[in-house]
Amino acid sequence: MDTILVINAGSSSLKFEVFSTKDGLTKLFRGQMEGIATAPRLRVNGRDGKILADQKHAPADVPDLPAAMQIVGAWLREKDEGRLVAAGHRVVHGGPDYDRPVRITKEILRDLERYVPLAPLHQPNNLAPIHAILDRQPDLPQVACFDTSFHRGQSLVANHYAIPERFFAEGVQRYGFHGLSYEYVAGRLREVAPDIANGRVITAHLGSGASLCALFEGKSIETTMGFTALDGLPMGTRCGQIDPGVLLYLLDQKGMSPKDVQNLLYNQSGLKGLSGVSNDMRALLASDDPRAAFALDHFVYRIAFYAGALAAALGGIDAFVFTAGIGENSPEMRARIAARLEWLGVRLDPEKNINGELLISKPDSSPELYVVPTDEELMIARHTLKLIGG
Ligand code: ADP
Hints:
It is built from 16 helices and 13 strands. It has helices at residues 65-79, 106-113, 123-136, 156-159, 165-169, 179-192, 194-197, 244-253, 258-267, 270-275, 281-286, 290-314, 324-329, 331-340, 350-355, 376-387; strands at 2-9, 14-20, 26-34, 41-46, 51-56, 83-91, 102-103, 142-146, 200-206, 210-216, 219-223, 319-323, 368-371. The strands form two sheets. Strands 5-4-3-2-1-6-8-7 form an eight-stranded mixed beta sheet, with helices on both faces. A five-stranded mixed beta sheet has the order 11-10-9-12-13, with helices on both faces. Strand 2 and strand 3 (26-34) form a beta hairpin. The chain starts with a strand and ends with a helix. The model has no long low-confidence stretch (mean pLDDT 95). The structure holds adenosine-5'-diphosphate. Adenosine-5'-diphosphate (ADP) is lined by residues 207-209, 236, 280-282, 285, 324-326, 329-330.
């Protein structure tokens, strides 16, 4: 059996999933090494949820991503499940040039390093496992799939900031992220609701990171994130849209360093900053702290606010789609967001919403409401298989 390894590497965790290429793509197992450098723990689950591995490691043994990659690689070799034919990687930034997934060569890898300044917190982590595999198995085909690619077809009007043009030329553009998720959802809509898929759709990817994407005929025409994954909606710990004047104030008047500002906006803001309780939606929904309730009100308000903006970009909408951790699993948040969209003609069916059905709006609702679980790993596996000629 031939297999494809999909890797999604973050700052403190390395997630992976292994697919068999037989009969299309079948998931075999998924795992993650979390707590890298602090409390490393490798956990792997089979397709049926069965625990295949649960190992704790000493922090000194797993100080960084390459070390985590070594341990995951050793576990995979010992598991010996088929013949690995390729590795597919989630890479956050494809810069202005990469509008589709690409098979990695040393030259392309050097090119992708150039985008580190555009995503300093994510890009180096995404590239580290590629280097590690290249060192150990230089002949294994590797494919990079970018979070930005799906949005690259947006119009120049949409992807510009109103600053002098020379900055656009050097890469200061609105890129947008969560592209693999939106691409998967757009494809899935073509299967389950083809008429809608060809129309005007707003998809809400609501997880730890959150954004909205306006899809016209399955293509991204607008999204709430921009140059970085900080823009748009407030998220678990990220601020979302903020007046750049606030940054000038923090730097000039409060004497904060760029590093402090970065930490504030990426790690201490959003739901966590507003509530002072948690960045986690489940914890906020369970809390009776009024600040948690306020953070949720703000989150819902901003989603509805941006939905209005994206509806304007699309010239109306035919469907609104929920996806990712919150969108897929929280009937309460879906109901609260839907209530704010009633002015657009949305009519939620409360029972279908509680049951988490695919179509959760009433027959007279226009736009319709859908819940479509996302699968970024499967999207990466598909691209990888395609690029190696499978
Ligand atoms: P990421 O992959 O970016 O870490 P996810 O898409 O897994 O994020 O989403 C994580 C978010 O989803 C967390 O805020 C979590 O609390 C929320 N979530 C997961 N399950 C539920 C649920 N049943 N009800 C409400 N929120 C949930």
